[in-house]
Amino acid sequence: MVQWWVGRAPASRSSLPLLQQHTIVERPRVQPVDLCTGCIVWLPKKEPDRDEIYCNCGWCEYPFELNEDGYNHPVVVLRIKQRKGSSIPGDVLCDVACITTFSDTPLSIFLQSRNRRNRKATPIFHPDFTANEEGEAYTVQLYLENDRKLHKQSYVRLSHVYQVPACFLQSLSFQSRKSAAYLTRLDYESYAILMNQLRLPRDVALGTREVAENGRSRLMELASMEIGLEVEVEEDSFVSSLLAWVAKWFIGFAFGSIVLWVLLGE
């Protein structure tokens, strides 16, 4: 299994007491209040009772289902929106792009083979895996805030964008005190570069401190916007129905008047 977590990994099985060796260590579930554009979280393995995840990038001819290789990997959150028809704060959907190591491919090898294999991906900068040649140093790379780094040289895939319910996502870190989603995040410039590469409009990109302090009010605002949209749609529907009824009545009245006029004229 690829070790992606930020920080110290859990103890190995051999170092655990016998009674704890059967305990499965899981990442903490992501709290919706901590989600923000550019944050990197974990998409766990596919559960049989959960709905499939499909691409919603807009340029796929047919909805592309996320395959097994996309699960149990990190993803970067691109956009966040309230689930349609839901007024529950925190019931949000995330547009995400998958992150991969390409089987632990070093940056230099990736750059040499990118054109040949048509790999549509952008590397995330890692200080331990820098470019070897002068030309490689000028390649576009994405950077994390506060000089944080992933465990391995990683790449953001550009082929598809998937919509994932926030309740599916887990923290990148196994440690509860480091589990807030905003702690591992692309900086704003890198987020803007990634959205341009994906040809997607940017979402509202709040500062990390603002996300940490105002996450709850932000979720309430998203929920209230969805409620307002539903009310507006219902009002528009009522007005449209009323206008249609008035139009039918007017046409009927006009037709009746013409018939009466013809009869009286005779």
In short:
With 266 residues, this protein is of the alpha+beta class. The chain is 30% helix and 13% strand.
Can you give a write-up of this model?
The chain contains three helices and six strands, in the order E-E-E-H-E-E-E-H-H. The protein has helices at about 105-115, 190-200, 210-265, and strands at about 40-45, 75-80, 90-100, 120-125, 155, 160-165. The longest helix is centred in the C-terminal third of the chain and has 58 residues, at about 210-265. It is globular, with a radius of gyration of 26 Å.
Overall average residue pLDDT: 80
Major beta-sheet overview = 6 strands, antiparallel
> Which structural class is indicated by helix and strand composition?
alpha+beta
Gyration radius over CA = 26 Å
Number-wise, the strands total 6
Sketch the topology as an H/E string, one letter per element.
EEEHEEEHH
Q: How far apart, in Å, are the first and last alpha carbons? A: 93 Å
List the helices and strands and how they pair.
Blueprint: E1 40-43, E2 73-82, E3 92-100, H1 107-117, E4 121-124, E5 154-157, E6 162-165, H2 188-198, H3 208-265
Antiparallel strand pairs: 1-2, 2-3, 3-5, 3-6, 4-5
